[in-house]
Amino acid sequence: MLLADFGIALSLRHERAVTRAGTTEYMSPEQLRCPFKRHPSDNKDRTDLHYGLGVDVWATGVLAYELLHGYPPFLGSHREETEQLILTAEVQVAPQLSHGARDFVLSCLNKDPADRPTVMQLLQHTWVRQHMKPLR
């Protein structure tokens, strides 16, 4: 399975990511810390709000969790509750998940983006490699 979503994309070489946008259930803690913007230039000078590629690793973890469980890892009855769960709740994984699947999901959903694996590390993860088939 290959997935791509460039609905919200920017070049990190040319601008700083400080936008709170996307599907709430897939937003990372660092995205949720960004205030809503009135103008595209809002918050561009706020280096404390800048986020990087870790948001994509987080979203990959949410997607993997949802594919394995049938629902996202943080789901409240309304947007504000979902946001609070993303910021504070521990991830609860099904006990029947393999060690590899559990490790993959939990590493992606680390609240601290500095402690998440890189995309290249995810591609080398044991769980991915044991199920990956070469592209033709």
UniProtKB/TrEMBL annotation:
Domain Protein kinase: 1-128
Annotated signal sequence range: none
PROSITE patterns per the UniProt record, alphabetical: PROTEIN_KINASE_DOM
Keywords from the UniProt entry: ATP-binding, Kinase, Nucleotide-binding, Serine/threonine-protein kinase, Transferase
One term of GO molecular function: ATP binding
Cited InterPro entries: Aur-like, Kinase-like_dom_sf, Prot_kinase_dom
Pfam families to which the protein is assigned, alphabetical: Pkinase (PF00069)
Domain of life: Eukaryota
Residues the record lists as binding ATP: 5
Record-linked Gene3D superfamilies: Transferase(Phosphotransferase) domain 1
Name of this chain's protein: Protein kinase domain-containing protein
